[in-house]
Here is the input.
Amino acid sequence: MRKLHVKSFGCQMNVYDSNRMTDLLTRDSYMETAAPEDADLIILNTCHIREKAAEKVYSELGRIRKLKREATRAGRKVIVAVAGCVAQAEGQEIVRRAPVVDMVVGPQNYHRLPALLAQAERGARVVDTEFPIEDKFAHLTPPTAAAIRARGVSAFVTVQEGCDKFCTFCVVPYTRGAEASRPVAAIVAEVENLANAGVREITLIGQNVNAYHGEAANGRPVTLGHLMNSLAEVPGVLRLRYTTSHPRDVDDGLIAAHRDLAILMPQLHLPVQSGSDRMLVAMNRRHTRAEYLNAIARLRAARHDMAFTSDFIVGFPGETEEDFSDTLRIVDEVGFAGAFSFKYSPRPGTPAADRQDQIADEVKTERLARLQECIERHQSAFNRNCMGRNLDVLLEKPGKIPGQLVGRSPHLQPVQVMAPSSLIGEIATVQITGIGSNSLFGALCSTQAREPALAGAGG
Ligand code: SF4
Here is the structure.
């Protein structure tokens, strides 16, 4: 049987897409290999978010060129594909610049891989980055129980793709297209399949997941809160999460879901990017600082133990020291449990990249250091507050030390605990006895036989 190696870069959506490509190709003609040098088909599933993303792909392709040359010398044909957001953004340019590449496949087109592969095997160089009219998901293969078990007790499920927001720094609307949502029934079926094979935690993913507006059984579109209510009834699912959300799409239904569904974890990643209204307008974020804080307050009123994480960009074009102070203030006001923060870096083709008032790199570096110090102060306080408390931890996998398991708290903190591997997939009560830099340490108190809970326990 021929061998497939998929290398995934970037976000959870790419991890999910890589798994679905693997499911599709291992259905009949390929088996997976972790070693690219053994593979007959190599797929790079690329990400366009990072700086110089395309250049990094070309240098990775340089390494693959050597592997392909050696395989050819040994009389073995290797097909190389570039998928994901760089494939979408660069298209034909990739086959022009990198003769090693046989196929370029956009994120909306990978359901066509078997047909494209057949063309590539006949010697054609194939580029497929048109946004298709058919539903990609309807053409994919569900993962086998063995594949699901190998991927662990926590799984991602894409429910929404694309973005209509056009923030002035972001390439997603150009690479992933307009907002589109999968129907409720298809998502429920996928979650049932995962839960039947032992998955206990589902994270719903989408570039703008809370803009979800998929079709319900009656043909009408419903929101993410409604979808969450349907998924809470799937037997075996113990926890639900979702990411990434946009502040503008935090609606009453989502807030009610946090209030009513105990299996919806009290944690939300809600990017704000800046605490300055002037910068939020320049970024075309379509929400104000006050609206963001109001969404946080309403979620906390619905569920008092909500924890929030966020994303920040410092040194966006035109950012003054006063704008930056507003960002520091919003970190203090919300008290984030954690956040990702980056220096602004221009993405070709986005409006902000063309602005003349770019900020000097040393200013960005200095502001980033101050912001990260502020974020870390709040994150440490949040973690210290867990000391001595009993937390429900979903035990996910073996830790680095023999006899140790690693799991996640309701607030997504990694927790290390000595516990038998038979407890993987269970929720255990763990008393927190230590705080590390990236995780908590705890002692096992008990495991709980749990049914998925509905209603009222969030409080
Ligand atoms: S909402 Fe998110 S994905 Fe959409 S353009 Fe803005 S940053 Fe990009």
